[in-house]
Amino acid sequence: MEKILNYINGQWLESTAAEFVDVINPATQELMGRTPLSPVSELEAAAQAAAAAFPEWRRTPAAERVQYLFKLKFLLEEHFEELSRLITMECGKTLDEARGEMRRAIENVEITCSMPILMQGYNNEDVARGIDEMMIRQPLGVGAAICPFNFPGMIVFWFLPYAIACGNTYIVKPSERVPLTMQRIFQLIEQTGLPKGVVNLVNGAKAAVDGILDNPAIKAVSFVGSSTIAKYVYSRAAANGKRAQCQGGAKNPIVIMPDADMEMTTKIVADSAFGCAGQRCAAASLAITVAEARDPFTEMMCDAAASRTTGYGLDAGIQMGPVITPMSRGRIEELIGTGIAEGASAPVDGRGPKVAGYEQGNFVRPTILVGVQPGSQVARTEIFGPVLGLMHANTLDEAIQMVNANNYGNMACIFTASGAAARRFRTEAEVGDVGINVGIAAPMAYYPFSGYKDSFFGDMHGQGWDAVEFFTHKKVVIERWPKEWSRKF
Ligand code: NAD
């Protein structure tokens, strides 16, 4: 069992926490570590260290700052397999899914290596005679990330490399349920030789989060997690004068038109709904069939769900792992029951499976709920498990109305061979990420990870240009240099 430590001011420190959360492999139930719920004093020590490191770090030229990120990229590549295995072990997803996660993490580091050009401002000579004007970007100070459990290695990279490449210093608060991947990543960050205090790691839960939200030295907060907490973090950070970007939950609908290629569609929708055991903010959660798409899609989707192999993500041939905790499994199974009580049928019902060799694992197999009604509880609630609800619409208009009735606005997809239908959908769907014949519209590192409504609180997103914008102030300078002065030289 590994000891979980905080990393503050370049030192690995044992927390003085009185409370701990067990980190348990969700397939094998092996106890992997115990996360200290660090008291606020430890968060304050990290904030102090980050604030002390800021003046020197912001003066370090951007071209020099990114040299640490180049080193980090190569260290992450070198330890790619080890990190991916660790993700599978503490979080449950399959090894291939974990590799995909680490690939996107590295992509973000690669983008930030070009920060000297990304954070360039602009200027005009002679906006009036002898007067020049320019916009320069400057770092904010100390930033902090608060992370969820479902991507233990990737999500921090939507923020941290941008923050430090722009000249900020940083604090990370990982999910208390999956702290080990982040601890390993920080060990690699340490090997890059970053000056002490530039990045800090504080484990914990609510006390550490509230410590971040109330600390005057912290100027920017990036949060990813459930909508209730996202809203809370956003409000409290904003009330304390901080810049905040808070990504919340999702309930992603996928529309299937009658002209869709059904074989390709069902395969992609199955990967979207059941990949990472449905624990992705971009997972398909509702499939809305239009007109005569209903029968072929329902039949093929049920086959795809029933044939998916479930087991320990490190074993060969496994397509889906367990969910994070027994509590989460209980909640998912209860919501399947709610769906049935509300009138849906479950031709594929994944409740209560036993997986040979992993009898104690938190497994729920893929589940299909047919006949989910608009407005019902299962149509509105984020299940965050391998459950796909099927709804039906007579026309594309009706389907778009169902998509837009959703409180969430993370992602929506359409499967169709019609350019006109796709274009209408792209224009009218009230979501931040749209997929056209794509099941997980998760943006590449050079695009913002968008989201509307209850899926996002703030305005600048993580990744790409948005992240540069988020982690910098814009300063406009106007200079006058009278002509007669230059004649003196
Ligand atoms: P969560 O909201 O329970 O926890 C997220 C973070 O908030 C953790 O670090 C946790 O310690 C902290 N936290 C929890 N309760 C708190 C409280 N009362 N006060 C202060 N801090 C608190 O989320 P989770 O279960 O770890 O992650 C799953 C959720 O994250 C899902 O809703 C999923 O859709 C969402 N998610 C969204 C995105 C996105 O990009 N929109 C990406 C990944 C996950």
Provide an overview of this structure:
- This protein is α/β, with parallel strands linked by helices and 489 residues long.
- The chain has 2 domains: 2-248 and 455-477, Aldehyde Dehydrogenase, Chain A, domain 1; 252-436, Aldehyde Dehydrogenase, Chain A, domain 2 (3-Layer(aba) Sandwich).
- Helix content is 39%, strand content 22%.
- The protein has 17 helices and 22 strands.
- A 7-stranded mixed sheet has the order 14-15-16-13-12-18-19, sandwiched between helices. Strands 9-8-7-10-11-21 form a 6-stranded mixed sheet, sandwiched between helices. A 3-stranded antiparallel sheet has the order 5-6-22.
- Strand 7, helix 6 and strand 8 (169-173) form a beta-alpha-beta unit.
- Helix 1 (40-59) packs across helix 8 (206-214) and helix 3 (80-91) packs antiparallel against helix 7 (180-191).
- Nicotinamide-adenine-dinucleotide binds at residues 146-151, 173, 175-176, 205-206, 209, 224-226, 229, 247-250, 281, 382, 384, 410, 449, 451, 455.
- Residues 146-151, 173, 175-176, 205-206, 209, 224-226, 229, 247-250, 281, 382, 384, 410, 449, 451, 455 line the site of nicotinamide-adenine-dinucleotide.
